[in-house]
Write a structure and sequence with these properties.
By secondary structure, the protein is an alpha/beta fold. The protein contains 18 helices and seven strands. A hairpin with a 5-residue loop joins strand 3 and strand 4. The radius of gyration is 25 Å and the shape is elongated. The protein starts with a helix and ends with a helix.
């Protein structure tokens, strides 16, 4: 490609992004939120994680007129602004004004605590602040960068994906859940629906509560479908690989048959739960007792291999032999060679379990 063509290509993409900058007061943002003119998506609200001390120090910063980083919003077709970056700051202010957000909020109004520059602020709510300080904090302003509705959807999505941090360390799946809806909701809604399946919930019981709260269960489902259907494009580390697969099934580039895939998912985990239960993906100690922990390479190997053979498995009256074959592979030395996340190791463990189950199905 020539330099002229490269420059022209860059310019053509810039044209597709329409932005404007506004300086707005926090009181304006509060009013916009109350009136439904500024929205925070439910998935995004759930990521409000600042502890009250951190929220309090942010409020203290506003009172002391310290500079605040810009926030980013997307303008929707009806003119409403959707927040895409700045969640922790905006939510802290809303909480201080009596609008709690997130799953962990206990109080209706934030009571300042942990202010370490002006100690006298500690113990105060917004209503207890002197009038002059109430006005000061209301008039504190922040730069708002608006991505206008005329911008191309795919570019808005990529901008969101690059901007969005939530101000905290979020899991990859939490960020996917927030960003992917700019392209469409069918993919993420599908993962959420699958995550409520009782059989699936049972067999991943070894996943820690902390991981489940960070939507690791949905990432496992995404991983299951991505590896089952798109192993040729697998790349380690898998974060971007999984994100790209979710993008594809969301915009239907991959011709993902939701109904068919859901049926395979349900049958697969029904079989696994019926025959192994919570021990399906658990490791074993040297004395033979079960470790109550989730082993990812067992998940890949067993779930994907059973799914690839599910019709034959359901027709075969040989469940006990399949269980025996799978358990033998889990306890054997060969599986230890396929524990890591490289594509060859992932292929290797799936092949190992698939061949073991096939031998049973073929009566060998």
């Amino acid at each position: 490609m020539s330099i002229e063509n490269l420059i022209e290509n860059v310019d053509s993409q810039i044209i597709k992004i329409r932005t404007k900058s506004l300086d707005v007061s926090f009181n304006e943002l509060y009013d916009m939120y109350k009136n439904g003119e500024l929205t925070i998506a439910p998935d995004y609200q759930r990521l409000f994680r600042w502890e009250e001390e951190k929220q309090s120090r942010f409020i203290e910063s506003l009172i002391l007129e310290m500079p605040v980083p810009p926030i980013f919003v997307i303008e929707t077709d009806n003119g409403v602004y959707e927040l895409i970056d700045g969640l922790q700051r905006i939510s802290s202010y809303l909480h201080f004004r009596g609008e709690p957000l997130g799953e962990t909020q206990q109080n209706d109004f934030l009571v300042l605590n942990g202010c370490d520059i002006v100690d006298d602020l500690n113990g105060l709510t917004f209503d207890k602040l002197p009038k002059a300080l109430q006005i000061k904090i209301k008039r504190s302003f922040v730069r708002m960068e608006v991505i206008k509705k005329e911008s191309e959807t795919s570019l808005k999505y990529h901008m969101f994906k690059r901007l969005n941090t939530g101000g905290e360390l979020l899991s990859a799946q939490e960020i996917r859940n927030c960003t992917i809806r700019l392209l469409g909701s069918n993919g993420i809604d599908f993962l959420e629906e699958c995550s409520k399946n009782d059989d699936f919930i049972s067999v991943i019981n070894g996943v820690s509560e902390e991981k489940r709260n960070a939507r690791y269960d949905q990432e496992l489902i995404l991983r299951f479908f991505a590896i089952k259907n798109n192993i040729d494009n697998y790349k380690y580390p898998v974060t971007e690989y999984l994100t790209r697969y979710l993008e594809k099934i969301t915009i239907e580039e991959g011709q993902f048959d939701y109904k068919k895939e859901k049926n395979v998912f349900e049958q697969t985990f029904k079989f696994i739960n019926a025959n192994w239960g919570e021990e399906a993906f658990a490791g074993k100690r040297t004395n033979g007792t079960i470790r109550n922990e989730f082993v990812l390479y067992y998940f890949d190997g067993i779930a994907v291999s059973i799914a690839s053979l599910i019709e034959r498995v359901m027709e075969c009256d040989c469940n006990e032999k399949i269980v025996e074959a799978v358990d033998k592979i889990k306890a054997g030395a060969e599986i230890q060679s396929y524990k890591t996340g490289s594509v060859n190791r992932v292929r290797g463990r799936i092949k190992l379990f698939t061949e073991g189950v096939e031998k049973v199905l073929e009566g060998r």
